[in-house]
Amino acid sequence: MIPPVAERLRFRLTTKHLCFAAGTGCLVAAFFLLLWRGPMPFEDLLRRFALMDSGGSSHLASQPALLRHYYRQALALGLGLVGVTTLLALAWSRLNGFTQAKIWRTTCTVACTCALCLYIFKITHDSTWSPVDVLVTTPGTLPIFGHRLLFVWIGQAFQIAIPTLSPLRCYYASQMIAALLSIYAVGRWSAIHVGEALSPLGQVLAVILISTCLDYRNFYDIAIVFFFSCGLLALYRRKYAWFVVVVTVGTLNHENVLLLIPIAAFLLYDTEPRRVWLAVVAASLAGHLFVRAALQYLIPFQTQVEWKIWSNMTKPFLDHREIAFSLLALGGWYALGLMSLPACDKRLRRLLLLFPMLCGTTFLFGLFHEPRVFNAFIPVLIAVLLKGAQWNVKQSSA
Q1: Mapping DSSP to helix (H, G, I), strand (E, B) and coil, where does residue 215 land?
Q2: Could you read off the pLDDT of 139-167 as tens digits, one per residue?
Q3: What are the CA-CA distances from residue 19 to residues 6, 8, 240, 244 (Å)?
Q4: Which residue, 72, 94, 116, sits at the end of a domain?
Q5: Are residues 256 and 170 in the same domain?
Q6: Nearest CA-CA partner of 279 in 243, 255, 232
């Protein structure tokens, strides 16, 4: 008589062997179907269904060669997906818990990036003041926008590598990289506040918040989230040399990265020696000014800013619809942020200084009806919301 433990072990091994055989068999069958050129079973039955199809492809049913071609490819695709899924599930069961968790988080990063890219493709539109084709080909002809060049250069690199790419596709390629970097950085930033296990929630929030702020096509909005996340990460981890690098390189993306410098001073002035935090502030400011001066020297513009003070004083009364859309996009999330403040620690509360600074720069140079002007605050808002959610879970289980 076989002992119960041995019987269970034999059953488990047999199940794994069957799964492996089934997955491999499906892949072999799919490969065979791709090579097969002969008749397929149930072709006549499929043709009848095709003639009744209302999806717009019924005309293919009258062409036997095309019917057989798509029939064969559909079967190969189905069997291939079943085979790959089966083998992946079998491989997943053989991994240890640490590796599974790491793959799970990586998959979440990729999934969130794909979702954000889909929103970029479907929501963004071209503008008359910064058309993508001009930015990719001759950015120096567009004042102000022509100095926000980091991801423009990445788009141009794609065009050099693949000359047949249109400027719009170069833009999409550059924003796919920006989206991946931003989602990854938000994940690392979220892990500091709620741990690795819950960090994917921060990435999901990033997709929601960034996508609601999408508007006209530009090369810098999404990357702003990346640079502010990296800057705050560097400050929290006390990687001050990296903070200087983030501010310096981030200036090539957008000049509002300058706001990280007063945040650094406010965060560090009473936790680090004076010589340390002053050096961080001075080095970051020097890097920012050096990049701005170099850009102005290489691509001189007569206009460095566009004043929007009067527009911000009048548009809320003249264009109620745009203001209402902005409130709908972010109002609820900021209300949740306010309710979450009691759960935040002292350092996180200090980062809230960024919000009034963004309000000030928006009043001077931006437009309040564009929620995208608060993209730099998204990492802080995510951290606050995650802390609030964590606190709410504890209160609910108490």
Answers
A1: coil
A2: 989 999 999 999 999 999 999 999 999 99
A3: 20, 16, 51, 53
A4: 94
A5: yes
A6: 243
Can you say whether the dihedral through the CA atoms of 355, 360, 365, 368 is positive or negative?
Answer: positive
DSSP state of 1: -
The answer on 298 and 385 residing in a single domain is: yes
The DSSP secondary-structure symbol of 197 reads: T
3 state DSSP class of 216: strand
Q: Is 325 exposed, middle or buried (0-12, 13-18, 19+ CB in 10 A)?
A: middle
In this prediction, residue 320 carries a pLDDT of 80
Backbone phi, psi, residue 125, to 5°: -140, 160
Beta-carbon contacts of 186 under 8 Å, excluding residues fewer than 6 positions away, are: 202, 203, 205, 206, 225, 229, 378, 379, 382
How many folded domains does the chain comprise? 2
**Nearest by Cα to 216 from 117, 131, 341, 92:** 131
Examine residue 201 and state whether it is found in any structural domain, yes or no: yes
Extract the tokens encoding 21: 């055989």
pLDDT of residue 326: 82
Hey, what are 259's tokens? Answer: 């706001």
pTM of structure = 0.89
**Owner of token pair 């989206």:** 179
Alpha-carbon gap, residue 365 to 396, rounded angstroms = 44
CA-CA distances (angstroms) from residue 12 to 4, 15, 289? 12, 5, 65
Contact 204, 112 (CB under 8 A): yes
User: Does 362 lie in the same domain as 303?
Assistant: yes
State residue 61's pLDDT score. Answer: 66
Query: Which run of H or of E encompasses 327?
Result: helix 320-340
